Amino acid sequence: MRRLFHRLSVAAISFAVSTPAVAETIRVGATSGPHAQILEAVVPVAKSRGLDIKIVEFSDGTMINPATDSGEIDANAFQHTPYLDRQNRDRHLDVVSVARTVLMPITAYSKRHATVAGLPRGGEIAIPNDPTNSGRALKLLEGSGLLRLKPGTGFEATVFDIIDNPNGFRITELEAAQIPRVLADVDLGVINTNYAIRAGLDPRKDALLRENELSDYFCLIGVARRNVEQPWVKTLVESFRSDEVKTFIIGTFKGDILAGW
């Protein structure tokens, strides 16, 4: 009887050693397009490290942080810090950044004019209407000399902060995803890179204005504060900020999207 028990014990130990551990599974939210595409490159890297990522694509980015806060998803990778800060404040959320990821420089395009100098007096400029990206767009326009904002105005600038508009440009605020669709109807459109790429625009070749690499708008990985110390957070961050994912970004986006590591 003792011999039989000994054989069973050895067999059980052998089975336990040879059976791979079940990977932990998390759900990570992103908007469709480049953000989700980059996450697809993160998946195999994370899997090799014992973390199974299920990508949850959202058509409405405003729903991602609430889903993260409530636990519907575990993390997200789609937004920059000013956007997260405003969402936390306005929607009473507690989502925090655990890592910097990529920069999708905001850019400006025109189908009517070949250069910014060619913009007519009184021309119409479309910018995103959400608070963080509208300020970002205005700062881009200010940096290019098209208008001037109140001294000390930060990235939460609004059209009411414009103090000098020498060419009388009409600033029209539209939903960010809509601006590529109306580009032919305005003189200049300021467009987030993810929407520009989805619309078939080439930020390197087509943009008349482009945000520089000193931008405060690098994207991030966000998690609910209660999850910050979970072991999977470190694995997710290290997988995203891996050499494999950086190589994918460089090879796929050719400088249109910049890795922040």
Automatic annotation (TrEMBL):
InterPro entries hit by this protein: Lipoprotein_NlpA
**Which protein family is named in the record?**
Belongs to the NlpA lipoprotein family.
- How would you describe this protein's topology in the membrane? Lipid-anchor
Q: Which residues form the signal peptide?
A: 1-23
Please name the PANTHER family in this protein's record.
D-METHIONINE-BINDING LIPOPROTEIN METQ (PTHR30429), D-METHIONINE-BINDING LIPOPROTEIN METQ-RELATED (PTHR30429:SF1)
Compartment annotation = Membrane
The record ties this protein, via CDD domains, to: PBP2_lipoprotein_IlpA_like
The record's GO CC annotations read: membrane
Say if the entry is tagged with keyword ATP-binding: no
Q: What is this protein called?
A: D-methionine-binding lipoprotein metQ
Superkingdom field = Bacteria
Pfam families in alphabetical order:
Lipoprotein_9
Keywords (alphabetical) are: Lipoprotein, Membrane, Palmitate, Signal
